[in-house]
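Fold this sequence, please.
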Amino acid sequence: MLSVDLYRGEDALRADRTQVLRRSWQFVGHETMAPKPGDYLAEDVGGAPVVVVRNAAGALAGFHNVCRHRAGMLVADGTGHCGEALVCRYHGWRYSLDGRLKNAVDFGAVAGFDPREFGLFPIRVETWRGLVFVNLDLEATPLSDAMAPLAGEAPFPAFPLTERRSHLLACNWKAYVENYLEGYHLPMVHPEFDADVVVSDYEVRIEGDVVFQSAPPRNASVYAGTWAWLWPNLAINTYRHGYMIERIVAVSPEETRLDYFYFFDPERGAELREMFVASDRVTAQDKQVCEEVQRNLRAGVYRGGVLSPKHERGVAWFQTRIAQAHGEPAKAPTAVPA
Protein backbone atom coordinates (compact mmCIF):
# COMPACT_ATOMS: atom_id res chain seq x y z
CA MET A 1 0.00 0.00 0.00
CA LEU A 2 1.03 3.60 -0.54
CA SER A 3 2.07 5.77 2.36
CA VAL A 4 -0.98 7.40 3.94
CA ASP A 5 0.77 10.76 3.61
CA LEU A 6 0.44 10.55 -0.17
CA TYR A 7 -3.34 10.97 0.17
CA ARG A 8 -3.22 14.25 2.09
CA GLY A 9 -1.32 17.49 2.30
CA GLU A 10 0.01 20.05 -0.16
CA ASP A 11 3.40 18.36 -0.54
CA ALA A 12 1.82 15.15 -1.84
CA LEU A 13 -0.45 17.08 -4.21
CA ARG A 14 2.48 19.11 -5.53
CA ALA A 15 4.42 15.93 -6.24
CA ASP A 16 1.39 14.30 -7.91
CA ARG A 17 1.06 17.30 -10.20
CA THR A 18 4.72 17.67 -11.14
CA GLN A 19 5.73 13.99 -11.26
CA VAL A 20 2.52 12.39 -12.60
CA LEU A 21 -0.15 14.68 -14.03
CA ARG A 22 2.14 17.11 -15.88
CA ARG A 23 4.16 14.24 -17.35
CA SER A 24 1.27 12.26 -18.80
CA TRP A 25 -1.31 12.67 -21.54
CA GLN A 26 -4.29 14.61 -20.20
CA PHE A 27 -7.70 14.76 -21.88
CA VAL A 28 -9.04 18.30 -22.45
CA GLY A 29 -12.00 17.77 -24.78
CA HIS A 30 -13.11 16.78 -28.25
CA GLU A 31 -11.92 18.43 -31.45
CA THR A 32 -15.53 19.33 -32.34
CA MET A 33 -15.50 21.66 -29.32
CA ALA A 34 -13.06 23.93 -31.22
CA PRO A 35 -14.08 23.59 -34.89
CA LYS A 36 -13.02 26.97 -36.36
CA PRO A 37 -9.77 28.99 -36.37
CA GLY A 38 -9.64 31.00 -33.16
CA ASP A 39 -11.77 28.51 -31.20
CA TYR A 40 -10.08 27.29 -28.03
CA LEU A 41 -10.27 24.90 -25.09
CA ALA A 42 -8.74 26.10 -21.82
CA GLU A 43 -8.22 23.81 -18.85
CA ASP A 44 -6.16 23.32 -15.71
CA VAL A 45 -3.74 20.42 -16.13
CA GLY A 46 -2.01 19.37 -12.95
CA GLY A 47 -2.39 22.87 -11.54
CA ALA A 48 -1.08 24.51 -14.73
CA PRO A 49 -3.49 26.58 -16.90
CA VAL A 50 -3.25 25.58 -20.56
CA VAL A 51 -4.99 26.56 -23.78
CA VAL A 52 -5.47 24.61 -27.00
CA VAL A 53 -6.42 26.77 -29.98
CA ARG A 54 -7.38 26.05 -33.59
CA ASN A 55 -4.92 28.04 -35.70
CA ALA A 56 -5.35 29.61 -39.13
CA ALA A 57 -4.15 26.43 -40.84
CA GLY A 58 -6.85 24.42 -39.09
CA ALA A 59 -4.46 22.57 -36.76
CA LEU A 60 -4.58 22.49 -32.97
CA ALA A 61 -1.76 24.21 -31.09
CA GLY A 62 -1.22 24.20 -27.34
CA PHE A 63 0.38 26.63 -24.92
CA HIS A 64 0.57 27.45 -21.28
CA ASN A 65 -2.21 29.96 -20.64
CA VAL A 66 0.36 32.40 -19.27
CA CYS A 67 1.45 35.73 -20.75
CA ARG A 68 5.23 36.17 -20.90
CA HIS A 69 4.98 39.72 -19.54
CA ARG A 70 3.68 39.36 -15.96
CA ALA A 71 1.85 36.02 -15.97
CA GLY A 72 -1.58 37.27 -16.98
CA MET A 73 -4.18 34.86 -18.31
CA LEU A 74 -4.78 34.83 -22.06
CA VAL A 75 -8.28 33.32 -21.97
CA ALA A 76 -10.71 32.20 -19.29
CA ASP A 77 -11.07 28.51 -18.54
CA GLY A 78 -13.60 26.70 -20.71
CA THR A 79 -14.34 27.04 -24.40
CA GLY A 80 -14.50 30.19 -26.49
CA HIS A 81 -13.28 32.12 -29.50
CA CYS A 82 -10.29 34.49 -29.49
CA GLY A 83 -10.36 35.67 -33.10
CA GLU A 84 -6.98 36.01 -34.82
CA ALA A 85 -4.89 36.42 -31.67
CA LEU A 86 -4.53 35.37 -28.06
CA VAL A 87 -4.66 38.60 -26.05
CA CYS A 88 -3.51 38.87 -22.44
CA ARG A 89 -6.43 39.86 -20.22
CA TYR A 90 -4.06 41.90 -17.99
CA HIS A 91 -2.01 44.25 -20.19
CA GLY A 92 -3.12 43.36 -23.70
CA TRP A 93 -0.04 41.69 -25.14
CA ARG A 94 -1.07 39.99 -28.38
CA TYR A 95 0.12 36.58 -29.54
CA SER A 96 -0.49 34.91 -32.90
CA LEU A 97 -2.24 31.56 -32.86
CA ASP A 98 1.14 29.88 -33.35
CA GLY A 99 2.36 31.41 -30.08
CA ARG A 100 4.56 34.23 -31.41
CA LEU A 101 4.41 37.59 -29.68
CA LYS A 102 2.87 39.96 -32.25
CA ASN A 103 2.58 43.13 -30.21
CA ALA A 104 3.70 44.13 -26.73
CA VAL A 105 1.00 46.80 -26.67
CA ASP A 106 2.22 50.31 -25.71
CA PHE A 107 5.27 48.81 -24.02
CA GLY A 108 7.76 51.49 -25.00
CA ALA A 109 11.24 51.25 -26.44
CA VAL A 110 13.59 49.00 -24.48
CA ALA A 111 17.15 48.30 -25.57
CA GLY A 112 17.71 44.63 -26.24
CA PHE A 113 14.02 43.65 -26.07
CA ASP A 114 13.42 41.04 -28.79
CA PRO A 115 9.77 39.95 -29.17
CA ARG A 116 10.96 36.72 -30.80
CA GLU A 117 12.26 35.63 -27.41
CA PHE A 118 8.89 36.10 -25.69
CA GLY A 119 6.61 33.67 -27.46
CA LEU A 120 4.18 31.56 -25.45
CA PHE A 121 5.50 28.44 -23.75
CA PRO A 122 4.37 25.46 -25.89
CA ILE A 123 2.81 22.17 -24.80
CA ARG A 124 2.23 18.94 -26.74
CA VAL A 125 -1.19 18.47 -28.38
CA GLU A 126 -2.32 15.26 -30.06
CA THR A 127 -5.66 13.69 -30.90
CA TRP A 128 -6.98 10.15 -30.92
CA ARG A 129 -10.31 9.42 -32.61
CA GLY A 130 -11.32 13.03 -32.10
CA LEU A 131 -10.33 13.18 -28.43
CA VAL A 132 -7.88 15.99 -27.66
CA PHE A 133 -5.01 15.40 -25.24
CA VAL A 134 -2.17 17.59 -24.02
CA ASN A 135 1.13 16.80 -22.38
CA LEU A 136 3.30 19.39 -20.62
CA ASP A 137 6.33 17.16 -21.13
CA LEU A 138 7.68 18.15 -24.54
CA GLU A 139 9.72 14.92 -24.68
CA ALA A 140 6.75 12.62 -23.96
CA THR A 141 6.20 9.54 -26.09
CA PRO A 142 3.37 9.86 -28.65
CA LEU A 143 -0.24 9.65 -27.50
CA SER A 144 -0.75 6.72 -29.87
CA ASP A 145 1.60 4.62 -27.75
CA ALA A 146 -0.55 5.13 -24.65
CA MET A 147 -3.80 4.50 -26.57
CA ALA A 148 -2.54 1.43 -28.47
CA PRO A 149 -4.24 -1.13 -26.18
CA LEU A 150 -7.60 0.53 -26.96
CA ALA A 151 -7.19 0.44 -30.72
CA GLY A 152 -8.93 -2.88 -31.28
CA GLU A 153 -11.01 -3.05 -28.13
CA ALA A 154 -13.88 -0.63 -28.47
CA PRO A 155 -15.72 1.23 -31.22
CA PHE A 156 -15.93 5.00 -30.92
CA PRO A 157 -18.91 5.97 -33.09
CA ALA A 158 -19.03 9.53 -34.40
CA PHE A 159 -21.70 10.65 -31.96
CA PRO A 160 -21.84 14.29 -30.78
CA LEU A 161 -21.04 15.50 -27.30
CA THR A 162 -24.53 15.21 -25.83
CA GLU A 163 -24.00 16.24 -22.23
CA ARG A 164 -21.37 17.28 -19.70
CA ARG A 165 -21.71 16.76 -15.96
CA SER A 166 -19.39 17.32 -13.01
CA HIS A 167 -19.35 16.01 -9.44
CA LEU A 168 -17.20 17.11 -6.48
CA LEU A 169 -15.91 14.53 -4.02
CA ALA A 170 -14.21 15.28 -0.69
CA CYS A 171 -11.35 12.83 -1.20
CA ASN A 172 -7.89 12.63 -2.71
CA TRP A 173 -7.92 11.87 -6.43
CA LYS A 174 -5.93 8.66 -5.91
CA ALA A 175 -8.51 7.32 -3.46
CA TYR A 176 -11.15 7.67 -6.17
CA VAL A 177 -8.93 6.12 -8.87
CA GLU A 178 -8.30 3.10 -6.67
CA ASN A 179 -12.03 2.71 -6.12
CA TYR A 180 -12.58 2.81 -9.89
CA LEU A 181 -9.91 0.18 -10.56
CA GLU A 182 -11.53 -2.69 -8.67
CA GLY A 183 -14.85 -4.49 -8.58
CA TYR A 184 -14.27 -5.91 -5.10
CA HIS A 185 -16.57 -3.28 -3.59
CA LEU A 186 -19.49 -3.82 -5.98
CA PRO A 187 -21.58 -6.21 -3.84
CA MET A 188 -21.36 -3.90 -0.82
CA VAL A 189 -21.45 -0.46 -2.41
CA HIS A 190 -23.38 -1.04 -5.68
CA PRO A 191 -25.75 -3.97 -5.10
CA GLU A 192 -27.85 -2.86 -8.09
CA PHE A 193 -24.94 -3.66 -10.37
CA ASP A 194 -25.64 -7.37 -10.10
CA ALA A 195 -28.94 -6.83 -11.88
CA ASP A 196 -27.02 -5.28 -14.77
CA VAL A 197 -23.89 -7.44 -15.03
CA VAL A 198 -22.68 -10.70 -13.49
CA VAL A 199 -20.53 -9.25 -10.70
CA SER A 200 -19.20 -12.67 -9.67
CA ASP A 201 -17.47 -12.93 -13.07
CA TYR A 202 -15.83 -9.49 -12.89
CA GLU A 203 -12.40 -9.43 -14.54
CA VAL A 204 -9.45 -7.03 -14.61
CA ARG A 205 -6.81 -6.98 -17.36
CA ILE A 206 -3.80 -4.67 -17.63
CA GLU A 207 -2.20 -3.85 -20.96
CA GLY A 208 0.37 -1.10 -21.32
CA ASP A 209 -1.03 2.11 -19.81
CA VAL A 210 -4.61 0.80 -19.81
CA VAL A 211 -6.59 -1.18 -17.24
CA PHE A 212 -9.59 -3.01 -18.69
CA GLN A 213 -12.50 -4.17 -16.54
CA SER A 214 -15.41 -6.29 -17.67
CA ALA A 215 -18.29 -8.44 -16.51
CA PRO A 216 -20.82 -10.45 -18.55
CA PRO A 217 -23.96 -8.39 -19.20
CA ARG A 218 -27.45 -9.42 -18.21
CA ASN A 219 -30.52 -8.71 -20.34
CA ALA A 220 -31.18 -5.01 -21.03
CA SER A 221 -27.92 -4.05 -19.38
CA VAL A 222 -27.24 -0.30 -19.10
CA TYR A 223 -23.54 -0.60 -18.34
CA ALA A 224 -22.53 -3.45 -20.65
CA GLY A 225 -19.54 -2.50 -22.75
CA THR A 226 -15.84 -1.83 -22.39
CA TRP A 227 -14.63 -0.07 -19.24
CA ALA A 228 -11.11 1.17 -19.80
CA TRP A 229 -8.93 3.37 -17.63
CA LEU A 230 -5.90 5.23 -18.99
CA TRP A 231 -2.99 6.14 -16.75
CA PRO A 232 -3.11 8.23 -14.68
CA ASN A 233 -6.63 9.70 -14.38
CA LEU A 234 -9.00 8.98 -17.25
CA ALA A 235 -11.78 6.46 -17.79
CA ILE A 236 -13.17 5.67 -21.24
CA ASN A 237 -16.40 3.71 -20.99
CA THR A 238 -18.18 2.49 -24.12
CA TYR A 239 -21.78 1.35 -24.22
CA ARG A 240 -24.29 0.11 -26.78
CA HIS A 241 -25.34 3.56 -27.97
CA GLY A 242 -22.33 5.73 -27.22
CA TYR A 243 -19.46 6.30 -24.85
CA MET A 244 -18.54 8.40 -21.83
CA ILE A 245 -15.22 10.00 -20.90
CA GLU A 246 -14.59 10.40 -17.17
CA ARG A 247 -11.82 12.84 -16.24
CA ILE A 248 -10.57 12.66 -12.66
CA VAL A 249 -9.23 16.07 -11.58
CA ALA A 250 -7.11 16.69 -8.47
CA VAL A 251 -8.60 19.97 -7.23
CA SER A 252 -6.87 20.02 -3.84
CA PRO A 253 -5.27 17.45 -1.50
CA GLU A 254 -8.70 16.24 -0.39
CA GLU A 255 -11.01 17.33 -3.20
CA THR A 256 -11.57 15.63 -6.54
CA ARG A 257 -13.76 16.68 -9.46
CA LEU A 258 -15.23 14.13 -11.84
CA ASP A 259 -15.93 15.56 -15.29
CA TYR A 260 -18.23 13.36 -17.38
CA PHE A 261 -18.42 13.84 -21.16
CA TYR A 262 -21.25 11.86 -22.80
CA PHE A 263 -21.03 11.12 -26.54
CA PHE A 264 -24.32 9.46 -27.41
CA ASP A 265 -26.64 8.64 -30.27
CA PRO A 266 -28.96 11.69 -30.33
CA GLU A 267 -31.86 9.46 -31.37
CA ARG A 268 -31.50 7.39 -28.19
CA GLY A 269 -32.54 10.02 -25.69
CA ALA A 270 -34.55 7.58 -23.57
CA GLU A 271 -31.56 5.26 -23.12
CA LEU A 272 -29.36 8.23 -22.23
CA ARG A 273 -31.80 9.40 -19.54
CA GLU A 274 -31.85 5.87 -18.18
CA MET A 275 -28.06 5.92 -18.07
CA PHE A 276 -28.08 9.23 -16.19
CA VAL A 277 -30.27 7.73 -13.47
CA ALA A 278 -27.93 4.77 -13.05
CA SER A 279 -24.81 6.93 -13.33
CA ASP A 280 -25.97 9.43 -10.70
CA ARG A 281 -26.79 6.60 -8.30
CA VAL A 282 -23.40 4.92 -8.75
CA THR A 283 -21.53 8.23 -8.43
CA ALA A 284 -23.37 9.05 -5.19
CA GLN A 285 -22.49 5.63 -3.79
CA ASP A 286 -18.82 5.99 -4.75
CA LYS A 287 -18.76 9.52 -3.35
CA GLN A 288 -19.94 8.29 0.03
CA VAL A 289 -17.46 5.45 0.36
CA CYS A 290 -14.48 7.43 -0.98
CA GLU A 291 -15.20 10.32 1.39
CA GLU A 292 -15.43 7.89 4.29
CA VAL A 293 -12.05 6.44 3.30
CA GLN A 294 -10.55 9.94 3.12
CA ARG A 295 -11.89 10.76 6.57
CA ASN A 296 -10.18 7.70 7.98
CA LEU A 297 -6.94 8.46 6.13
CA ARG A 298 -7.02 11.96 7.60
CA ALA A 299 -7.60 10.63 11.12
CA GLY A 300 -4.13 9.09 11.23
CA VAL A 301 -5.11 5.66 12.56
CA TYR A 302 -4.76 3.67 9.34
CA ARG A 303 -1.19 2.68 8.47
CA GLY A 304 -1.70 0.54 5.36
CA GLY A 305 -3.30 -2.84 4.80
CA VAL A 306 -3.22 -5.60 2.19
CA LEU A 307 -4.37 -5.89 -1.42
CA SER A 308 -6.34 -8.79 -2.81
CA PRO A 309 -4.46 -10.65 -5.58
CA LYS A 310 -7.87 -11.74 -6.92
CA HIS A 311 -9.63 -8.38 -7.05
CA GLU A 312 -7.11 -5.56 -6.68
CA ARG A 313 -4.48 -6.14 -9.34
CA GLY A 314 -5.34 -2.81 -10.95
CA VAL A 315 -5.00 -1.00 -7.63
CA ALA A 316 -1.60 -2.62 -7.01
CA TRP A 317 -0.40 -1.64 -10.49
CA PHE A 318 -1.54 1.97 -9.98
CA GLN A 319 0.03 2.21 -6.53
CA THR A 320 3.33 0.84 -7.83
CA ARG A 321 3.49 3.52 -10.53
CA ILE A 322 2.54 6.27 -8.08
CA ALA A 323 5.21 5.08 -5.64
CA GLN A 324 7.82 5.14 -8.39
CA ALA A 325 6.79 8.67 -9.39
CA HIS A 326 7.22 9.79 -5.78
CA GLY A 327 10.56 8.02 -5.46
CA GLU A 328 9.25 5.51 -2.92
CA PRO A 329 10.07 1.81 -2.89
CA ALA A 330 7.58 -0.23 -4.91
CA LYS A 331 5.51 -2.59 -2.75
CA ALA A 332 4.63 -6.13 -3.70
CA PRO A 333 1.41 -6.20 -5.78
CA THR A 334 -0.05 -9.10 -3.82
CA ALA A 335 -1.81 -9.54 -0.51
CA VAL A 336 1.05 -9.00 1.88
CA PRO A 337 1.11 -6.52 4.77
CA ALA A 338 2.23 -3.04 3.73
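The first helix runs from residue 10 to 19. The chain has six helices and 17 strands.
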